[in-house]
């Protein structure tokens, strides 16, 4: 049941509203009265109030001042304002403060009832959100209490070995942890990339939510099967099913991953992509992990949320047999073994000529895979390739008109890459490029996907790389830069605060104020007053 507070300096107005509707039928178990702002504050301090109907014009403090007092103390009260005058400035101020509605006296009780029902619906939604918040704090406590396990450290060290580690080291480590695994044991790996969050969260909350996702992955994907879920050094979620997952097919793995993807969207405000590997021995896991990492970092089109390394017998689409293993090609190209790769490219096109049922989609897929591989290596080496990055080579449509055109294009790409490596021209890092792009678009609604497209990276990979190199999340950086811009505007211009907020893409003045206070320790109004007073807060 809910509680109602009626605030008006006129006794008859309060009684009229109190008796005008059957509040118990609407779900109110208590109806409180107050005849001025001070009395209302006392009632709110002593009782839980869900909905408040309040007159604006009262002696002493007005209804608007009362709502400001409520907002400052964080009381979750839905407010409906009443007034004798249809004054637009009052309505505007009421809406800015978060009032649900604004009614002119005398009150139409049918209209009032409709608005109160709407207010109760908002209260229900807030209570549901509070339940989610409690769940969040449960994960927070678990996260703070949990310490890294030594077994996780072993798996992390194993994955860091791109070359095959010594068999003796693997067996010694596994035996030391009391597991039944050996170097010949088979495991099935899944990598999970967090593509984006559906709501703005800061760096600390992001880490807590990542822990929640790992817990959900263990429950939904591993279920009761033996295995482990942990976060690698790049921020990816790694799932290893011991024993290779038993008799499970790729289709069954996909079904569990789809359930996990849906749960992430519904309960954890996130979009994720799962990269399914293939069953492999423990001693060969590093190479399989590297291949999945490469697939994630180059998945710039993001057109699927389940990406398979292989096909299963049922025909579930994975990496088509018509395409080369671009990760294997990258392993040749990275140390400069260009001639062996040229041989692989020529062999590939010989096979492609013999491919039955070849379609232009295969040519397009090769074009994107080759281009992504080269951008990936240029990024790793911090090397500039102006001809390639400036779009001077053939575009997709021209390069994929025929197999011969595509082969000529691929050889030109390798030649361009070789020239770039030999020139040694340093390129701007992806993080610096991202920062420059953000700085040029601070007054626009810029998405993480737009930034990632600008630097030719997968959004999830860009977010992890940004956090690793700067120590803060991409969203925190954007907010901090916007608030620095807002700080300058408030200090050095006479623009109204509402106009400053709108210029930075904030339609809600209240949300702008909360964000500004989070970064600068006071709301915009107080900050501007401190500047006017000559306190010199601006650095």
TrEMBL record:
UniProt-recorded Gene Ontology molecular function terms: DNA-binding transcription factor activity; sequence-specific DNA binding
Post-translational modification 4-aspartylphosphate, affected residues: 55
Endoplasmic reticulum as UniProt keyword: no
Keyword Transcription regulation included in the entry's annotation: yes
Domain HTH araC/xylS-type as annotated: residue spans: 432-530
SUPFAM superfamilies named among the record's database cross-references: CheY-like, Homeodomain-like
Domain Response regulatory per the UniProt entry, residue ranges: 3-120
Protein name listed in UniProt: Two-component system response regulator YesN
């Amino acid at each position: 049941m809910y509680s109602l507070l009626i605030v008006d300096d006129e006794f008859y107005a309060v009684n009229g509203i109190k008796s005008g509707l059957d509040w118990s039928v609407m779900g109110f178990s208590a109806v409180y009265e107050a005849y001025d702002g001070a009395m209302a504050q006392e009632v709110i301090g002593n009782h839980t109030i869900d909905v408040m109907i309040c007159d604006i014009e009262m002696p002493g403090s007005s209804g608007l001042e009362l709502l400001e007092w409520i907002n400052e103390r964080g009381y979750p009260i839905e407010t409906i304002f009443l007034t004798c005058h249809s004054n637009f400035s009052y309505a505007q101020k009421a809406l800015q403060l978060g009032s649900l509605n604004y009614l002119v006296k005398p009150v139409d009780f049918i209209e009032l009832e409709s608005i109160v029902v709407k207010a109760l619906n908002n209260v229900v939604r807030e209570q549901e959100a509070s339940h989610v918040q409690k769940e969040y704090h449960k994960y927070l406590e678990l996260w703070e209490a949990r310490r890294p396990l030594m077994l996780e450290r072993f798996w992390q060290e194993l994955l860091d070995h791109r070359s095959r580690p010594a068999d003796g080291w693997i067996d010694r480590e596994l035996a030391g942890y009391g597991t039944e695994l050996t170097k010949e044991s088979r495991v099935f790996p899944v990598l999970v990339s967090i593509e984006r969050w559906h709501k703005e969260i800061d760096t600390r909350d992001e880490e807590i939510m990542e822990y929640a996702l790992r817990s959900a992955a263990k429950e939904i994907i591993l279920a009761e099967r033996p295995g482990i879920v942990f976060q690698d050094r790049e921020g990816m979620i790694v799932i290893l099913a011991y024993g290779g997952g038993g008799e499970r097919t790729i289709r069954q793995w996909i079904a569990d991953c789809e359930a996990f993807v849906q749960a992430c969207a519904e309960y954890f405000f996130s979009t994720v992509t799962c990269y399914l590997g293939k069953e492999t021995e423990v001693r060969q896991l590093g190479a399989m992990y590297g291949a999945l990492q490469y697939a994630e970092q180059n998945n710039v089109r993001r057109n699927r949320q389940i990406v398979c390394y292989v096909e299963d017998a049922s025909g579930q689409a994975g990496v088509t047999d018509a395409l080369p293993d671009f990760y294997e090609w990258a392993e040749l190209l990275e140390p400069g073994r260009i001639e062996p790769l040229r041989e692989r490219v020529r062999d590939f096109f010989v096979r492609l000529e013999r491919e039955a049922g070849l379609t232009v989609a295969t040519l397009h897929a090769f074009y994107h895979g080759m281009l992504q591989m080269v951008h990936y290596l240029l990024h790793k080496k911090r090397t500039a390739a102006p001809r390639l990055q400036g779009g001077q080579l053939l575009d997709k449509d021209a390069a994929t008109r025929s197999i011969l055109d595509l082969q000529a294009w691929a050889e030109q790409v390798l030649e361009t890459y070789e020239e770039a490596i030999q020139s040694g021209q340093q390129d701007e890092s992806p993080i610096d490029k991202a920062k420059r792009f953000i700085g040029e678009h601070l007054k626009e609604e810029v998405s993480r996907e737009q930034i990632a497209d600008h630097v030719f990276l997968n959004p999830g990979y860009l977010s992890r790389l940004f956090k690793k190199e700067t120590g803060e999340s991409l969203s925190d950086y954007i907010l901090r830069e916007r608030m620095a811009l807002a700080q300058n505007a408030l200090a050095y211009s006479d623009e109204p605060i509402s106009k400053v907020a709108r210029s930075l893409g904030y339609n809600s003045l209240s949300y702008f104020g909360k964000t500004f206070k989070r970064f600068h320790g006071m709301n915009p109004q107080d900050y501007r007053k401190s500047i006017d007073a000559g306190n010199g807060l601006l650095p």
